[in-house]
Structure formats: structure tokens, C-alpha cells
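Re: the multi-chain job from yesterday

Posting the exact lines I submitted so nobody has to dig through the queue logs.
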Amino acid sequence: MYQFDYQRPETLDEAVALLKEDCKLLAGGQTLLPTMKQRLAQPEALVDLGAIDSLRGVCPDDDKLAIGAMTTHAEVASKADIPALACLAAGIGDPQVRNRGTIGGSVANNDPAADYPAALLGLNAQVTTNKRVINADDFFVDLFETALEENEIIINVTFPRPQAAAYVKFDNPASRYAIVGVFVAKTGSGVRVAVTGAGPCVFRHKGLETALNNNFSAQAIEGVSVSAAGLNSDIHASADYRANLIKVLTKRAVAQIGG
Amino acid sequence: MPTVSMTVNGKQVTADIAPNTLLVSFLRENLRLTGTHVGCDTSQCGACVIHINGESAKSCTMLALQADGAEVTTIEGLAKGNDLHPMQKAFQENHGLQCGFCTTGMIMSAVDLVKKHGKPDDATIRKGLEGNICRCTGYQNIVKSVKAAAQEMEG
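And the result, C-alpha cells for all chains:
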């Protein structure tokens, strides 16, 4: 790999002070390091968040669950007491990736086929940074793009507890990335349906949400039209195929919840 | 150059290294622990799996500096003297390998798998070894080996 600078601060304040132009934060490194090997990213410096203990851990509360940005997928899978979220984390990559990859790294990267963005959007989570609190609805902006500013570091993600939720994905058998993944949640403010893998960025499907708010059942989805316009087409699946998968997976998620 | 210190197979090691040194390169080239292999170098094949603070990880997808202060175990650290680890013995006895290239990573992943799942069934073993690719055997004897070792490791 090419030469770069590396810092490993022990506090969040130190980390913020080290941020400068053309520098990237290193979380678990499961995406960033392979990307750097291929020179798809070439930061001049890395600030490793691995030694900041305050960024790690799962913190349950009565009505919400806060997960530190540097908490690994394996820890979320074994400790998160929102079953749909734990199950989602257990299906990311492979065991070794789950032992290193982190929730903060995943959401900051906003890969269009990543799993966590669907959980954040589906559960109406909030992303707390060193500067502010950002609602999931405003966080995921576009392909690999988030609302995070250059010198902003994610501290944790807080998930309000849903009445019920399920995540179902149709995954690529090699990478386990979602060809399409659908997160359905029944929340105090209604049903939310978040779709990952299908488009350039995770999105909510209002048509499916309206149908499920009227009648929370798999049959209610039959009449909903899911357009293929703007969806991804690649070697794995066409846009039409993905549009169909959105409906199929939403039905499966609803069935899992018991609708 | 920054300094890195870690415990590898029970021994404290310290070295000055370039930040772009991968953990697998540090283990193989600085420490000459060549049991950990580089297969794909893209974090897919699992030939480079080691344990870091007891958890399996792909050492081609970690900087050596990220392991600062950590306890690292490689395949060389599993046996106790001449006594092979039950997983190593099981791979030997059940013919869980052909060319052997993937074997060290396979064993390191399998040890972590059994630690977490106790006596895993076939499906759990196959799913748990998803991050390790073998291009010779077709996995049948690998699964058999892990199952056999799980009996020994518990007892």
C-alpha cells in the first residue's frame, strides 16, 4: 500500500483536533483498507478511532438503544436487544469482518448495499456526532454521501425501540452485501419501510408504508406499485428484478413480524 | 517511523514500522511467522486469519499499528510444545486439507467458531467458515474436522 500518516488518539477531542484536509477516520477498516489498497481512496493521513474506549459499547434504555460508533457488528449481533437489529448485524459479511467492522464506519461510508443504513432509516434512529444530532431521514444523502461534515465524528447511533421490526435481505452469496434488503418497523409514528441495495442510496418507500399503515398484512402489499425507475441495474440484478424483490422482501418482513 | 508493541503468541514484540505495514506483513516479514498466509489480499479468502484479543480477524485487512497493545495469536501459537491443538490434530486425522494453503486460516477461524458455538452442527460450521475459502477439498472433511475438534475442545 502507498505511504500515509497515521495517528491513534485516545480521546475524542484529540481525534477532532487531528482532523485535517485529505485525512480519513479509520474505524474497523473493513471497507477503507481494501479501498485504499485499490487506490479508490487515497487519504494522506488516517486517524484511527480504535483506542477511544468511549466510542464502544451497547447501552440499552427503556425506550431506546444507544450503540457506540466503534461497536463491532459481532458485538451488536450478540448484545443488541432489538432482535431485528441483532439479526441484521449477524448477517453482515463473514465472522472476521463482523469482529472488526463497526456500525459507525458502516453508516459513515453509506455504501448503497450496506445493511445498517436500512436499520437506521427503518427504526428512525438518530446519529449523534461531536457537533449535533442528525435524524436518519436527513443523514443518508446520496451514493456514499452523508450529512456528515469534514470535521464531524460519529459518537453513537440511538435506536428508538420499535413495537415490532424485521429485516430481510436477498444477499449476494459471495459478499453478503444486500442485492436488496428491506427493513420494516412498526413504530409509535406508524410503519416505516426502508430499502437498501436497490437504489443509489437507502430510501423509504412511501407507497408500501401507506399500504401497511392502512392494513399491516402481506396481502396489503399486493396492490402497491413499486417502480423500477432509478433503481440499480448491474451484473447481479436488473432494476426490474430489484423492484420485484422490494415487494417480495417487504412481504417476508411483514410475515416475520406477524402481519 | 511509529513504534508498535503487541504480544504475539505470548511474546512481547516492539518494532518501528511504516504506517502502511499490514498486520500480515508484520507477522510474516518482521517476525518470520510465515504460517499466516496471504491468499487474496482483499479480505475474502481467509488464509490470513489470526486472533486479535481472542477474536478471529483477517490480518490482511488490518494495519499492524491497529494491533498496538493487542494480544495476537497466530497458527504458530496454538500448539503447546509438541502437543498439537485439538483443532490441528482433528484436521490431520480427518484429512481436512489437501494443499494446506488455506488450512492455517481455516483452523484459526474454526477455533473461534467452536469457542463461540460449543458443539456446532454442520450448518453452523459451514456458515461460520464463510470467510474462509478452500480451493481443493470441497469442505466435507473440513467440516468433519471441526466437528471432531469441537468434541475434544469441550471435553
